[in-house]
Write a structure and sequence with these properties.
FAD/NAD(P)-binding domain; FAD dependent oxidoreductase TIGR03364; eight-stranded mixed β-sheet; FAD/NAD-bd_sf; binds flavin-adenine dinucleotide; 2 domains; FAD-dep_OxRdtase; globular; D-Amino Acid Oxidase, Chain A, domain 2
Length: 390
């Protein structure tokens, strides 16, 4: 029998962010994961911390998360680029949404760019945009590096990692696994898609299902700037910060006419640059039991549109994969307390990298992360936080 202050189930970014902040509070922490290393959603994604695109009412949470990423990067040495994101406006409706957003948030969050400026920023002089924007506060990490490196850093400083061990039940400070029981004052369960197996009633109450996303990694041609993060018109229709702008409905109508194939696959066309190349995606399909196969037509569609924007004539694809994350039909964050000692936390949309440290802060009851925009006194309690951006 082993007892500690805090047990965390799940070594994805949400579990690790919680472990990082708890370790900084001086608590004894154990992390249990069914795998031998982080291989879940947290390594399959773009590594794009899209703070700016989140809705107005979760900007405090987003900024707390941003400060957490900065602290984790400073401590662990992981790459965390503060290069922001670029959004070329290829049409007038896209430009209108960017103009409205820049007026609404101000230049600290969104700076409008001329057609030539945005073309140069994305490395394609023939882009043909009508304008664009730079979102300077967005950050980037390498998803293949971040979670494993944070786990290693924590392990070197005394956080216990129990790998290859499946948690089968959590109640009142006791964590039962296929390798025996562990005990703690507090247990935080961050199982991502594993929620349905561990707490089926919570998963069913929120309509939890799997979202699958077609992704590719291509070699980065020399003309594409290193550290690039690119969002597109489909992102403006998807992230709630942009989608709340008055011009968003005209943008959606325009997209449906111009790009019905992208709309059909629920695309959020994005690119990020990591050490291994350019990450390209994504589409969205929702199911309780998703198809395991990658649809080549979707992968080719996304590749075609991205390489068109970036002026890449002959892309060299190194990898393709089907990313998975937990999605819900009614919320973007499940944060529940099945008993006094247990917290269950699952991000049920594609924004868990962005908000991980902010959510971890809420889970631990507000740890001392110094934020640029501090959390206000009337911030809702953890259970009331409703996130709408994805
Ligand atoms: C293709 C793709 C693109 C994305 N792009 C972005 C993006 O650009 N920006 C962004 O903010 N977010 C993005 N996301 C979403 C983001 O990746 C997720 O929201 C986030 O990684 C969820 O982290 P997590 O720790 O909850 O889950 P995970 O990383 O899946 O970790 C859960 C862990 O729990 C473990 N586990 C589960 N059940 C058990 C059990 N019973 N016992 C022991 N261990 C268990 C698993 O093994 C796993 O290691 C994207 C996701 C995908 C797939």
């Amino acid at each position: 029998m082993s007892t500690t202050d805090l047990i965390i189930t799940g070594s994805g970014i949400l579990g690790l962010a919680t472990a990082f902040l708890a370790h900084r509070q001086g608590r004894r922490v154990r992390v249990i994961d069914r795998c031998a290393r982080p291989v879940g959603s947290s390594v399959q994604n773009f590594g794009h911390a899209c703070f700016t695109g989140q809705a107005d009412d979760i900007q405090d949470l987003a900024m707390t998360s941003r400060a957490g990423w900065q602290q984790a990067a400073a401590a662990t040495g992981i790459w965390a680029a503060e290069t922001g994101s670029y959004i070329p406006a290829m049409t007038e409706p896209e430009l209108r949404v960017l103009q409205e957003f820049a007026d609404h948030r101000g230049p600290d969050q969104a700076r409008l760019l001329g057609a030539e400026e945005v073309a140069s920023a994305v490395g394609n002089p023939n882009l043909g945009a009508v304008g664009g924007a730079h979102l300077p506060q967005d950050m980037r990490v390498d998803p293949r590096e971040a979670a494993p490196a944070i786990a290693r850093w924590l392990a070197d400083r005394g956080v216990e990692f129990t790998w290859n061990t499946t948690v089968t039940e959590v109640a009142d400070g006791t964590v039962s696994t296929n390798r025996g029981q562990f005990h703690a004052e507090q247990v935080v369960v961050c199982p991502g898609l594993g929620l349905s197996a561990l707490f089926p009633s919570i998963a069913e109450a929120h309509g939890v299902r799997t979202c699958t996303l077609v992704m590719s990694l291509i070699e980065r041609p020399r003309h594409i700037p290193t550290g690039l993060a690119l969002l597109t018109g489909t992102s403006l229709a998807r992230y709630d910060g942009f989608a709340a702008m008055p011009g968003a409905s005209a943008l959606r109508e325009d997209l449906a006419q111009r790009e019905p194939e992208l709309v059909d696959v629920i695309a959020n066309l994005m690119v990020t640059d990591i050490a291994d190349g350019l990450l390209i995606g994504d589409s969205h399909a929702y199911s309780l039991s998703p198809e395991p196969f990658i649809d080549e037509t979707i992968a080719d569609l996304l590749l075609d549109r991205v390489t068109g924007i970036l002026g890449i004539d002959a892309p060299v694809v190194s990898q393709r994969w089907l990313g998975h994350y937990a999605d819900s039909t009614d919320t973007n964050l499940i944060l529940e307390h099945p008993d006094e000692r247990t917290t269950v936390a699952v991000v049920t949309s594609g924004i868990g990298m962005t908000l991980s440290f902010g959510i971890a802060d809420r889970i631990l009851g507000g740890s001392p992360i110094e934020t640029a925009a501090s959390v206000t006194a009337d911030t809702p309690t953890s259970d009331e936080v409703v996130m709408s951006g994805r």
